[in-house]
Write a structure and sequence with these properties.
alpha+beta; binds zinc ion; elongated; 3 strands; about 90 residues
Length: about 90
Amino acid sequence: MGESDEYLGPYFKGQVPEQCGHYYPDVMRVRDKSEDQLSYQRFFRVLDCRFCGQYGKSIRPEAFSRAEIAEKDLPRIRKSELAKLLKRNVAF
Ligand SMILES: [Zn+2]
């Protein structure tokens, strides 16, 4: 039986595929990481797909649940969100 004969999911009703179109558990989440850019911060979810290999998926900070945000990241997140608001010229 070759790889093309393998079942590719979804594995349960309503399951949402990852960016590459494959499903958990074929796609395992490896970890989340953040990367400081010059004026903003990018967040990545690193996924490891048994068909596509490892890839990074860009995620917005608000997609994190509170428990997933490390305390040490909060000051940086606040700073970057504030910078975005100020850029849009939002009055407080
Ligand atoms: Zn994949």
